[in-house]
Amino acid sequence: MTRHALALAFFAAAAVMPLVIHDAYFLDSLVVILIWGAVSAAWNLAGGYAGQVSLGHSAFFGIGAYAAALLATRFNQSAWIGMLAGAVVATAAGLVIGYLSNRLKGPYFALATIAFSQVLLIIASRWRAFTSGSEGIPVPFRPGFATLGFASKTVWVYLVLALALAIYLAERYLEVSRMGYRLAGVREDEDAAEALGIPTRRLKVAAIALSAALTSVCGTLWAQYVGFVDPFYVFSVDLSVRFALNAIIGGLGSAMGPFVGSLLITTLETYLRATFSGIHGSLIGIYLVIYGALLIVLVRFVPQGVVGWLGARARRLGRHARA
Amino acid sequence: MLELDAVTKRFGGLTAVKEVSLTATPAEIVGIIGPNGAGKTTLFNVISGFLTPETGRVLVDGRDVRGLAPHRVCALGLTRTFQLVKPFGGLSVLDNIMIGALTRQTSVSVARDEARRVAGLCRMEALAESPAGALPIGLRKRLEVARALATRPRLLLLDEVMSGLNPAELAEMLDLLRRLHGDGIGLIVIEHIMAAMMRLAQRIVVLHHGEKIAEGRPEEIARDPRVVDAYLGEEFVLADA
Question: Is the model's pTM score more than 0.80?
Fold first, then answer.
């Protein structure tokens, strides 16, 4: 019940805000919060629901971003085609990474995913003839729905909100489905799940491939929104860590967790950066120290994630109310 | 339905299971006993598909299942439990059992009903909503059996589900296992302690250093000099039986 209420409040607020507030900076923050929330929710399918923690999800994000940019600039295709192509390539890459998850456990799997994203970074930044190398690719802005080009930030809010909501609802459905319960078994104990007749390898691969495809779709939208694809950004470890962090802070394996995590972390980062750089020139970089310290505090005292913590608080309050 | 034909499993230079042959059917309770390191759990790992034997055959209904993934062995009707229990600690007792039921059942709501029924059979209905990770060891062992039972096995492979239980829990477990046997489910029971086994099994197989050194009815086993020898130095008192 709490989780439903939280989701309703979050998504309703996101839907109403563009109607009330027209400030471009604010709307931009909203789009960014929703996109990072959506990617982290996609990451959560592998990292949270299947228990396969990846630190290389920027690989799939970059595939989606590059697919749209390359198809638009080299082959004059619409961004929707790019989105589809990116999702197909990311699914294939996800199958490979999923296969790795059956060979490598825990930290070794995480390291392999980092390596995978860095291989893509090298290809994207060195293959000058096709990808323009380290210069990156500007995504042509062609207004219209068919080309995914919108000047209005309000439209972007609703577009990204629709994607975020779709991923959220899909995960809520997953949680109460046969596959969701069996994935929970795989996450809790692979050997026990296998002994109980669950095809653990196939399920993990499926979860990782789906996670990769959705991450790629987010990458396409992001490229269309920002209008530029920089290989050192889209394939960065920083970005992969951000995807994982949002979900871990918000709540691993909880559909709402990544969105709450994204809201907290993106807002905190933006606020700290705005407050501690620029005006106080001597304190440039101090925001990272504060940011890091706050993350440590959060992980130390709310290890189950914000959503899990809120749920436990609500249950305790409910008991008090009945008592 | 299960037939092991001269199965050998080696780990490097160590032969954990050496040319062991045995059969089991849903009609009986087979006990496997032996001192620590006799190869009992390795034998279960071989039967359930977690390990592939070097030589010999593992036949289920006449079909060789060597190399089959454990979930496929389960699908054939053989479900094993783990000596070091592996509950899905973050999930409720009912969800644990339901995940077992979902192996034969595609509908979540039907599987949940089935899990309730199995929980009742195992006298765990009052604990249905408790987190499995919070259960004491005796109840964890029972959950291990309940969850395996929910997969509707024809043959249950139980790895030391009676060790570590207090006398009341032990009596309850024995009662449960006898009821399952009465329902036509075959049991292969590994136990370190002979006393409980003597009261339960119709046929006992004794492993020592990976080899089968004796097989027979409990009273025959208790008198077998090779068995007494194998247990020398261990803290077993066969007279307990």
Answer: yes
The pLDDT of B136-160, averaged and rounded, is: 95
**CB-based burial label for A323 (10 Å; 0-12, 13-18, 19+):** exposed
Residues of B with CB under 8 A from a CB of A: 48, 50, 69-71, 74-75, 79-82, 86-91, 95, 98-100, 102-104, 106-108, 111, 147-148, 150-151
Q: Which two tokens stand for residue B76?
A: 């054939």
Query: Is A205 in contact with A98 (CB distance < 8 Å)?
Result: yes
**Model pLDDT for residues A127-138, shown as the tens digit of each residue:** 887 788 778 888
Question: Which residues of chain A approach chain B closer than 8 Å at the C-beta?
Answer: 176-178, 181-182, 184-185, 188-189, 191-201
- CA torsion through residues A147, A152, A154, A157, sign: positive
CA dihedral A76, A79, A84, A90 (to 10 degrees): 100
In angstroms, what CA-CA distances link B188 with B122, B137, B158, B196?
A: 18, 21, 6, 14
Query: What beta strand segments (E) does chain B contain?
Result: 2-11, 14-24, 29-33, 55-60, 63-64, 78-80, 155-159, 186-190, 203-208, 211-216
Domain chopping of chain A, boundaries = 10-235
* Inter-chain touch A189–B88, beta carbons under 8 Å: yes
Alpha-carbon span B129 to B151, nearest angstrom: 20
Say which residues have a Cβ less than 8 Å from residue A106's Cβ, sequence separation at least 6.
A53
Could you give the ipTM of this predicted complex? 0.91
Q: Is the separation of the CB atoms in A323 and A316 below 8 Å?
A: no
Question: Which residues partner with B60 through β-bridges?
Answer: B2, B63
